[in-house]
Design goal:
Elements (H helix, E strand, L loop, with lengths): L1 E6 L8 H13 L7 E3 L11 H7 L6 H13 L2 E10 L5 E8 L5 E6 L10 H4 L8 E4 L2 E5 L8 H9 L4 E5 L7 H15 L2 E5 L4 E2 L2 E2 L5 E3 L5 E4 L10 E6 L4 H8 L10
Length: 264
């Protein structure tokens, strides 16, 4: 299997509509290259562009979903389309990830449970999701998480208990803490003996440089591929990595550490 992680530069000069068109073409370009394409968190508006969220919010049938559904269908790929600012007509804003099947159907969505910002930003402006999302795919049971969720191992352990074999994590993780991003992606892979595909943004969101370093990690913690990025920032890149979904079952059989779990 091959995955392409599209580390998008959220350029503030480019409008959300222009970016949707551009990224849809990048997804279509993965036809025959990848089986799974992953986009980062809040790439249409910017993960730190709080002032744009209310006006740019959309539904699960909105312009981003429409464009990404068509792109997935045209490319014939599974597409984790990153996340959008979702406006529930009967509720608050949510940070919602979208997973499309190769026929363009919306296969699953996940509303981010852990919101970043403490008493401001996302934590103040968005509601927390309440449900785990673990779904069947050709790559195995896929668990969905988003950015700040990566800091909470209990979320990943709960998805493991629902059969998760790989985790897809879109993010808008800042450059000044990109070392944590790389460390935590590997930690979640090792502790759950799972594949982790973590796609970060590039460029600058509302004055906040993004860390990049989108990464694919196997259950032993081995980095199968990593995009550019460091504490000073990052650039747009499409990272394509081959991976074997069967490595999860083999690892868990060869080194059955999960069998020794104690539940308190």
């Amino acid at each position: 299997m091959r995955a392409s992680l599209v580390q998008i530069d959220v350029n503030e000069i480019e409008s959300a509509d222009e970016r949707r068109v551009r990224i849809a073409e990048l997804v279509r370009a993965q036809r025959g290259v990848a089986d799974l394409v992953v986009l980062p968190e809040l790439w249409t508006l910017g993960g730190f562009a709080y002032e744009a969220w209310a006006d740019g919010a959309e539904t699960l049938e909105g312009p981003t979903a429409e464009a990404m559904s068509a792109a997935a269908r045209d490319a014939g790929v599974w597409l984790h389309a990153g996340s959008i600012v979702e406006r529930d007509p009967e509720g608050p804003l949510c940070n919602t990830s979208l997973l499309f099947a190769p026929d363009g159907e919306l296969h699953a969505w996940y509303r981010k449970i852990h919101r970043f910002g403490f008493d401001s930003g996302e934590a103040a402006m968005m509601a927390a999701g309440e449900e785990l999302c673990v779904v069947d795919t050709p790559f195995g049971r896929m668990g969905l998480a988003t950015c700040y969720d990566l800091r909470f191992p209990e979320l990943f352990r709960a998805m493991l208990d629902q059969g998760a074999e790989l985790f897809v994590v879109p993010a808008a993780w800042p450059a000044r803490r990109v070392g944590h991003w790389s460390l935590l992606a590997r930690a979640r892979a090792v502790e759950e003996q799972a594949l982790v595909l973590a796609c970060n943004t590039a460029g600058t969101h509302a004055g906040v440089p993004q860390g990049g370093r989108s990464v694919v990690v196997d259950p032993w913690g081995t980095v199968l591929g990593e995009a550019n990025g460091d504490e000073s920032g990052s650039a747009e890149e499409v990272l394509t990595v081959s991976f074997d979904p069967e490595v999860v079952a083999r690892t868990r059989a060869e080194f059955p550490v999960l069998r020794d779990r104690q539940k308190w």
